[in-house]
Amino acid sequence: MRRGQTPTGNLPRNVTEDPVPTRIAILGGGQLARMTAAAAFRLGLEVGVVARQAEDSPATLMATRTWIGDWSTPELLTDVATWAQVVTLENEFVDARVLAELERRGVSVRPSAHTLATVQDKLTQKEALRKAGLPVPRFAAVESAADMFSVGRELGWPLMLKARRGGYDGYGNELVRKPEDAAAAFEKLSRKGSELMVEEFIPFTAELAIMVARNPQGEEAAYPVVETVQHAHMCHTVLAPAPVSARTAARAEELGRAVLRAIEGVGIFGIELFLLTDGDLLINELAPRPHNSGHFTIEACMTSQFENHVRAVMGLPLGDTSMRTAAAAMVNLLGSQDGESVPRGMDEALKVRGANVHIYGKHRSRPGRKMGHVTVCADSVVEAREKALQAARCISL
Amino acid sequence: MRRGQTPTGNLPRNVTEDPVPTRIAILGGGQLARMTAAAAFRLGLEVGVVARQAEDSPATLMATRTWIGDWSTPELLTDVATWAQVVTLENEFVDARVLAELERRGVSVRPSAHTLATVQDKLTQKEALRKAGLPVPRFAAVESAADMFSVGRELGWPLMLKARRGGYDGYGNELVRKPEDAAAAFEKLSRKGSELMVEEFIPFTAELAIMVARNPQGEEAAYPVVETVQHAHMCHTVLAPAPVSARTAARAEELGRAVLRAIEGVGIFGIELFLLTDGDLLINELAPRPHNSGHFTIEACMTSQFENHVRAVMGLPLGDTSMRTAAAAMVNLLGSQDGESVPRGMDEALKVRGANVHIYGKHRSRPGRKMGHVTVCADSVVEAREKALQAARCISL
Fold first, then answer.
1. How do residues B20-79 score in pLDDT, each as one tens digit?
2. What is the pLDDT of residues A304-337, one digit of tens each?
3. Helices marked H in A139-181 — which ranges?
4. B-chain residues within 8 Å CB-CB of A383?
5. Which residues of A touch B356 (CB under 8 A)?
6. Could you report the predicted ipTM of this complex, rounded to two decimals?
7. Given its phi and psi angles, is residue A7 left (phi above 0), alpha (psi -120 to 50 degrees) or beta?
8. What sign does the CA torsion over A170, A176, A181, A183 have?
9. What is the residue-wise DSSP string for B206-269?
10. What SS3 state is found at B46?
11. Which residues of B fall within a CB distance of 8 Å from A13?
12. Chain A: nearest CA to B306, how far in angstroms?
């Protein structure tokens, strides 16, 4: 069927004239970049990876081209942008001013420098959401422990104190239970140089997350909302779909889509939500990139979050986000000690029927470091979680 | 849970003491090696790729280590074997004597040199199957056109004349309709230097295929049998599961498993079958490696053929081969002309809901070259095929 001659030459029917861009560069060399690279390769693209260090950047092992260095250096980024048609990232902490400079020179940076500038500062992120009429916890900028006292009189205690920039996986957050603890917490978090903000403490009943993709043409695709179970502020287990009412699921999707429009997001975004006791949802935080809570999509959905991220940033149509299976569960594999990572227990883990084990190929382990994950598809989230935990328990990294 | 201390030190419960081998080398740099590499990376392995040429060997783009050269050279293979704990292949035409030499030096070659020696010569392959009591078309070695006449008196005409070595995708096969055509066909096929054989012509109603994996411990895993629809001797469309009776499907699985035992196969094998008008099955040919008819398993099965190949050759437990979805269809994307490959039509193809498009990243196209494939999962093979063809029709490579 691709052999038919048409008036335009050797092109078959339905074939458009413009070849798509073929080179994508990813800022970051970790597992998110690695899984994004795998999806990009599958679509026939060439993949460049920009990693801060040569050692232990697992994405560099499967890249067409690798750059090692500080990705906030204009020289490095210019070199990258000369090679790639599209630049994306696995990490939101890239200097947005440098990205804006690239854009001024005509490079497609996706998500855009504007979106990243808004999202990477949690204060401006929340302001943008509130301005769009979206439900967020009450918040305020604070410049001193004294500011915390006055905000605390309005929002009540405990307060959640947050670094506005650079926080992830709970690093940069501090729960302040009472006014007497404010000074120490402020001192601790401001030591790293970031400005701080506080949010009201939300007594949620569950944490949910939804992945939503959007391409430059404005096409959107939302995945089923999931429940994320955190241990020690890190995403530990993800249940898909979240065991919530259809009304809650629909509301989560509505919020997710509205968030991307509010910040003009292009690419895939992870939106973390609090489920309140009365069934309402509040938006907790955003990640402008593939997200741990979307790893289940590799096996469980018609199109993975990584492929939809690549499609979105390349300006391609988005793929079907529906689930192939009734349910899925994902469990993170975390490092347990400092030192060289020697995977053990794979033999036992792979005996668990249906366990899809992902090992990121990091050479060094440390307590809590994300070293891999396990996904299981099953007929129910209960069965999927049980099997995923069973397999994960066998593995030491 | 991975933090618990046990009497053996820092190992969690259930963790075995022996780390698994971590380095696999693949002989061959094409799409089968590339998709095998992707599966190996996901399991946290390091992947070496041995390609005949640097140009247009798409697997080399995502390898930890690459060797370019003739993989029948003992020096090259020794270097590879020094790096890797396990050596496997995407192509059965590696000199089995060289592999046997590697084995004598203690390298794990999987499948083994013995298995490859048996399979890579279609005559010894068929003899091994017949000796194991498995149903194959009647066949005979021929050393001249005169031999063909005498065999033809017994097996009837037409006859299928085959090069014993080096044939694939119909190259090396010649249908000889009548005795008068024997001399020309013999001359044509023997020109390439291979010895020849003939087989009786089988008037099949359908071609089926089954992928079966087996590890060194003897564990086996069979995928659902599929129907393969060939155009011009090449696998064009695969329907999973094959629309055949449960009895036929069970017989196909029985034959597939028996084949691997007969040849002591380790790794994944593609077994091509003829479905006869009376419902019986005959074994057509074997491929001692991942196979085009198994590409659907990437999306449609709990564990892909590539991951099960890696698990098998690494001596790991095999994964669940059952389908995640009711049905799937795979359509190959073939080159249509000589020259540089410029993917066109991705934009239209990706609009087809549920289309998973794989582009192999080959830079040069030629008519009939396998450049990619499309898989669609759906509720029925009819729907899956329709969508896969719809997406494939859009793409030109």
1. 568 999 999 999 999 999 999 999 999 999 999 988 899 988 888 999 998 878 788 889
2. 999 999 999 999 999 999 999 999 999 999 998 8
3. 145-155
4. none
5. 302-303, 319
6. 0.89
7. alpha
8. positive
9. EEEEEEEEE-TT--EEEPPPEEEEEETTEEEEEEES-SS-HHHHHHHHHHHHHHHHHTT--EEE
10. strand
11. 393
12. 13
Amino acid letter, A299: E
Question: pTM for the full model?
Answer: 0.92
| Helical segments of chain A, H only | 31-42, 74-83, 96-104, 113-120, 122-131, 145-155, 182-190, 246-262, 297-300, 305-313, 346-349, 381-394
pLDDT greater than 90 at residue A102: no
Of A311, A358, A396, the CB nearest to B42: A358
A344–B contact, CB cutoff 8 A: yes
Does B344 contact A299 at a Cβ distance shorter than 8 Å?
Answer: no
> What's the Cα-to-Cα distance from B147 to each of B179, B183, B347, rounded to whole Å?
11, 10, 55
Would you tell me which residues 261-320 of chain B have a C-beta closer than 8 angstroms to some C-beta of chain A? 299, 302-303, 311, 316-320
* B324 → closest Cβ in A10, A325, A359: A325
C-alpha to C-alpha distance for B199 and B217, rounded to whole angstroms: 34
Which residue is it, tokens 């009734």? A326
Weakly modelled stretches of chain B, pLDDT under 70: 1-21, 168-170, 232-235
Contacts of B308 (CB under 8 A, 6+ apart): B213, B221, B268, B318, B319, B321
